[in-house]
Write a structure and sequence with these properties.
The chain has one helix at residues 2-16; strands at 52-55, 63-64, 74-76, 79-81, 89-95, 98-105, 120-124, 128-132, 166-174, 177-178, 184-186, 189-194, 197-204, 223-227, 235-243. With 244 residues, it is mostly beta strands.
């Protein structure tokens, strides 16, 4: 009788495949959490339903210039264009982890080379620059060309369009994490698509963007998105952000 019982248990175990992988597909289904619904934009690159629209082509209500004064950049025909000499432009709101979309156009008229041609930049948290540059047939140091994490990471490829053509950046940013003593315990990361092409693949940010010297890592909280004024008449349109 006892042996019959053990035999029954053994057969039951085998039937349930306890010694190996389960054969029931339900055992590996995960039903929670259910992702919330986001409605995509109507056309490619249009802001999805949960995005904060930073610039829709009509005004700079979400931006300010140097010293929190109104930006002098020029809004016209659905775009905003850098006014050289007037300084950078910043979002009024501060952000941490985010997905950022923006469209930009380098000047159609090419009258300079290297870092002086179509230079601007997107700064995450006002500290970490994804370089904007006209790198179409324009030699410069690769860790300072379009799509570089400036002076930290060379882009995987050069996906630039011609001067005067609209281009896109889609940036996925994870902010660095600092502990209560101000020590960085996790590096920030950046992933960048340039005109839909992956050019930075989850690279670990070394620290602040520095023109001279090494990156720094002082603790900080959320920060503004900054668009750099570098003396060139760069234009922007359709800028939106999703907080992550
Ligand atoms: Mg720049």
């Amino acid at each position: 009788m006892k042996n019959t019982f053990y035999l029954f248990v053994l057969l039951f175990c085998i039937s349930q495949n306890i010694y190996g992988q389960t054969k029931d597909p339900k055992d590996t289904e995960v039903w929670e959490p259910v992702p919330r619904i986001v409605t995509p934009g109507k056309t490619n690159n249009a802001p999805p339903s949960d995005a904060i629209v930073l610039f829709d082509g009509t005004n700079l209500d979400n931006w300010h210039g140097w010293h929190e004064k109104p930006s002098q950049w020029v809004v016209k025909d659905g775009t905003v264009t850098v006014k050289p000499g007037t300084g950078d432009m910043y979002t009024k709101q501060s952000f941490g982890d985010c997905q950022l979309h923006l469209e930009f156009r380098t000047p159609a008229k090419v009258d300079a080379d290297g870092q002086d041609r179509g230079n601007s930049g997107v700064y995450l948290q006002d500290k970490y620059e994804v370089q904007l540059l006209d790198s179409y047939d324009n030699k410069t140091y690769p860790n300072g060309q379009a799509g570089a994490i400036y002076k930290q990471y060379i882009p995987l490829v050069n996906a630039c369009k011609k001067p005067g053509e609209w281009q896109t950046y889609d940036i996925i940013y994870k902010a660095p994490v600092f502990n209560k003593d101000g020590i960085r315990v996790a590096q920030g990361t950046l992933t960048v698509l340039h005109n839909g092409v992956l050019i930075q693949n989850n690279v670990a940010i070394q620290g602040t963007t520095e023109y001279i010297g090494m990156p720094k890592n002082e603790a900080h909280g959320k920060g503004k998105i900054k668009l750099q004024e570098h003396g060139n008449e760069m234009s922007f349109r359709n800028i939106w952000i999703r907080e992550l």
